[in-house]
Amino acid sequence: MEQQLAAILGPDPSHFEALVSHLMSTANEQRSQAEGLFNLCKSHHPDVLVLRLAQLLHSSLRHEIRAMSAILLRKQLTRDDSVASTVAPPSAPSAYLWPRLAPSTQSDIKSLLLASVQREEVKSICKKLCDTVSELASNLLLENAWPDILPFMFQSVTSDSPRLQESALLIFSQLSQYIGDILLPHLSTLHTVFLNALSSATSTPDVRIAALGAAINFIQCLPSTSDRDRFQDLLPAMMRTLTEALNSGQEATAQEALELLIELAGTEPKFLRRQLVEVVGSMLQIAEADGLEEGTRHLAVEFVITLAEARERAPGMMRRLPQFVGRLFAVLMKMLLDIEDDQAWHSAESEDEDAGETSNYSVGQECLDRLSIALGGNTIVPVASELLPAYLAAPEWQKHHAALITLAQIAEGCSKVMIRNLEQVVSMVLSCFQDPHPRVRWAAINAIGQLSTDLGPDLQVQYHQRVLPALASAMDDFQNPRVQAHAASAILNFSENCTPEILTPYLDGIVSKLLVLLQNGKQMVQEGALTALASVADSSQEHFQKYYDAVMPYLKSILMTASDKSRRMLRAKSMECISLVGMAVGKEKFRDDAKQVMEVLMTLQGSQMESDDPTISYMLQAWARLCKCLGKDFLPYMSVVMPPLLQSAQLKPDVTITSADSDDDIDESDDESIETITLGDKRIGIKTSVLEEKATACNMLCCYADELKEGFYPWIDQVAPTLVPLLKFYFHEEVRKAAVSAMPELLRSAKLAVEKGLAQGRDESYVKQLSDYIIPALVDALNKEPETEICATMLDSLNECIQISGSLLSESQVRCIVDEIKHVITASSTRKRERDERTKAEDFDADEGEFLREENEQEEEVLDHVGDCLGALIKTFKASFLPFFDELSTFIMAMWGKDKTPEERRVAICLFDDVAEQCREAALKYYNTYLPFLLESCNDDDPDVRQAAVYGVGVCAEFGGSVFKPLVGEALSRLNVVVRHADALKSENVTAYDNAVSALGKICLFHRDSIDAAQVVPAWLNCLPIRADLIEAKVVHEQLCTMVERWDRELLGPNNEHLPKIVQVFAEVLCAGKDLATEQTASRVINLLRQLQQTLPPSVLASTWSSLQPQQQLTLQSFLSTQ
Q1: C-alpha dist (Å) from residue 395 to 399, 435, 441, 483, 983
Q2: CA–CA separation, 508 vs 487, rounded Å?
Q3: How many angstroms separate the Cα of 773 from the Cα of each of 6, 107, 743, 768, 918?
Q4: Of 478, 479, 480, 717, most Cβ neighbours within 10 A?
Q5: Which ranges does the UniProt record give for the HEAT repeats (predicted)?
Q6: Pick from 600, 709, 663: which is nearest to 131 by CA?
């Protein structure tokens, strides 16, 4: 080995060249031997190694050797902090050699690299070389360690050599993101450089493209709008790069230019605003030009859609150009006409329902969806209304098909506007159910399915009597099995947004048709029928019992007989259907068949299945549904279910990593289920089927823990270490969500098992150990979570975990939770501020306002859960939490401001309410700060804020003693406003009313000496009973009981004149069963009524009794007569 090394690094360069050549060898043994030698050189002789590589790059005559040397040098000389470094084998020596090199070597390398840039003529090698130079320079320039490079670049860009100009521009392009600040002093020089390179008559197409890339990258890095505006006048020259390439037939160059401009549209859309009409007009011309390649036209479409989607950076900008939206929409609909009537579609032997669809068709379909989501119904529906009728009236079937596909694609983005025009939309689609062409009928069914999802439940409620019979008759189309199957599948979409009341009258007809289809020869039709039966059972629940005996034998038969490979999906769907039917009809009806079905599933589970077998995922879900249906009876099967489920949950993501600018595309050809994301300068390909199976498994684990409670205990020790790391599984949201939801379920399961003595002798310390593992991990994941929606879910889970763990939480854990909550509140405020900035944009309009409202609703959910978490901590730790509350008070007071949303104010008030209620005397010190806000909020415009505030006044009245006394007068007048409001009893105001009545009662009870009792107490009595807030109702009616028991003078009134009212309240409370009073209060009420019966004069009793309704008299008599 030493000899080999000596030869490789010796005076004869051919040995080293041979080593580099072997590193590219396709023979594994030769390559791995070369890698071993290369790593030895790197460890022991780094200086010689990099110099040799640099010399090869400069002087080797073989192209592939120079290219490989550029790549190897880049890897040795640059820091790799990206994802890729996490997948490097641990045995490889550290790749980053630069700091280990002698200063003289560093100097030689820099000179050799620049000399190579001057010499190299091969375009592909130039690009690799420029990558190496840029990455090295990006590290060195910040420390001013490569002073020669900027002068070299400025010199090269003005040289006579196009290749050198291009290289310098490529380096500028890549460096701008790292050293934008260093280049700032050279703005005017760069402006001239870019303008010359873009518009000089002598510039080659390659130089122009490189200049376009450099200009776009540089513009994106400029921190201020005014700096970016200095480059505005480059835009016509930038666009000319594109049009000239097209005019001279160089579409490959044009496509490069388009990709760069798309990047600019996504990141700096406002840069285009002043010349928007010209730029978008040019792009639409390209999109409309039939003579150009599809790829070019698709990129032009992508540019316009990207601008429409750039809502955060340029809200409302594209809606200013309705004529362009119309033109783009027409282009996209025209793309949908590119569809052939392929025989494979009609024969319906296989799944591929997209037979005959082209890439044009797919792009058209995807872009209609994106455009409508980006611009909304107010912009899109008028445009669609102009084009759709002409398409539907045309003779060609393709146009009818395109119109229906368009309706289905725009429904999600235009749902609000389409719901207002439902009659028109539904009639348009249903008229096509009779179209002579089966593909059009299929598209009509498809549209109904999509509209049922996007426009439900309005569509179901208003049009069930037209839609369901139409789908049922489409199921009779035995000539066109694909249409039949699709009609059955559309039943799924329809019934998902449907109440049992709507569905039940149609069940006889639908179920009998689906049973006919189940016995049909075509597998696709059978699969559709199974899907439909499953969804109908799921939606109709117990109403499905009457069909159970007819349906189940068919389902079991398919499960047991569909065993060959071609029928795997059929069997999988039968599992889904059986488990959903079982859940619908319930345990008693399903029990006997369930045993049989589970025997079959257990046999299947033990058999060898191929990794792409759909049975695996369907079986995971079927087991979980069977568990939900059978409850504790399912426990014996857990030992069969859990091992494969854990295996699926532990699947490693199948990830391929390449450089984002490399020519090696991730190989998608053999598997369309690869999703590609770009992170920094790395392109990551992930196999989605693996992720979906993992997500399903994690969801099922959560289901079992939720359903089986303490019965899940034996599995916690395996499940917790599987799911906790997945709280930070950023490849797939569903996996994270499932892991998050499972955390409180695991804790609850452990706690119940310990409490019920089922934890094999383990005690509370086990629950603490689990809590110590889960809660910090959840807090840490929350800190790093990029998605607002998942943040809300994490906070919700954290709140549950706090409630379950309670006092097991240590002070340091509480500290971490509180610090993270501060971080969450701050991040939320930042996001709100950014949204407020968007409202100031020139083109901001009502549609953008609507989008913002939706985003803010998500933000409110986050704050809501923040309030719940803090509330749980206050309830758990009471006064010992107050030091933390003091830290948080600046955040809480800020949420009380007039400029804050009602939800923020409500959360702040609830937190003070919790502190006052849980900490009692210890909380009195906060009254001076918080009570003025609380009283003011009693008359807030928002009913939820009023409710929280008046509840708080009640708490302070109960526990505030002398501190509250001076404020009794103001509190009474504030509560009076709530109680006497004309709309006080309307549904949105009634809980605030009930809580105000409760607070009044507490003032009557605890501050009698500070009020005019003869007026206030009867006024309070007149508000009873309260009926909406059932918790407060129980409190208030118990209080009434207490006051009557002590024969309260002001309550009963002179000569007991309020007695009829009191008896009336008691009657209504008793008639309401357990809703308005606890059992204890109810029995106290009955005793009081018996007492009254015995002590009051008969005449008073008779008049009291006569004031009751007949039903109340009967109920009271029955209560009083039973001893």
Answers
A1: 8, 11, 15, 21, 58
A2: 17
A3: 54, 51, 10, 9, 28
A4: 480
A5: 425-463
A6: 663
587-606 and 638-649 helices, crossing angle to 10°:
60
- Strands 682-687, 674-679: pairing is antiparallel
> What is the pTM (predicted TM-score) of this model?
0.78
Contacts of 488 (CB under 8 A, 6+ apart): 475, 514, 517, 525, 528, 529, 531, 532
* 214 touches 255 (CB < 8 A): no
Burial of 34 (0-12, 13-18, 19+ CB in 10 A): buried
Query: How does DSSP classify residue 339?
Result: B
* Alpha-carbon span 165 to 918, nearest angstrom: 73
Cis amide leading into 90 (omega within 30)? no
Backbone φ and ψ of 497, nearest 5°: -110, 35
DSSP state string for 543-582: GGHHHHHHHHHHHHHHHHH--SGGGHHHHHHHHHHHHHHH
What gap in Å lies between CA 42 and CA 849, rounded to an integer? Answer: 59
Domain boundaries, the chain: 1-77, 644-653+696-879, 896-1023
Helix intervals (H) in 785-901: 788-805, 811-839, 846-877, 882-894
Q: In what order do the strands lie in the sheet with 655-659?
A: 655-659, 682-687, 674-679
CA atoms lying within 13 Å on the CB side of residue 1028 = 17
Hunting for tokens 């939320």 — which residue is that?
828
At residue 357, the 3 state secondary structure works out as strand
Please, are residues 507 and 547 in contact by the beta-carbon 8 Å criterion? yes
Q: Do domains 644-653+696-879 and 896-1023 have the same CATH topology?
A: yes
Assigned CATH topology for domain 896-1023: Leucine-rich Repeat Variant (1.25.10)
pLDDT along the chain (1123 residues), means of 10: 80 87 88 89 89 91 91 83 38 66 93 92 90 89 87 91 93 82 83 91 89 92 86 92 91 93 92 91 95 95 94 80 91 94 76 75 96 94 95 96 97 96 95 96 96 95 96 92 92 91 92 90 87 92 91 92 85 94 92 90 82 83 92 90 91 74 47 65 75 91 94 95 95 94 97 92 93 96 93 96 95 95 93 85 82 85 95 96 94 87 93 96 94 94 96 96 95 95 93 96 94 94 94 95 92 89 91 90 91 82 82 81 67
Question: 123: burial class by Cβ within 10 Å (0-12, 13-18, 19+)?
Answer: exposed
Write the DSSP assignment of 895-935 as a string of letters: TTSTTS-HHHHHHHHHHHHHHHHHHGGGGGGGHHHHHHHHH
| Backbone phi and psi for residue 658, each to the nearest 5 degrees, phi listed first | -130, 170
Whether residue 457 is preceded by a cis peptide bond, meaning omega within 30 degrees of 0, is yes
In angstroms, rounded to a whole number, what is the distance separating the alpha carbons of residues 736 and 218? 36
Query: In the Cβ-directed half-sphere of 275, how many Cα atoms lie within 13 Å?
Result: 17
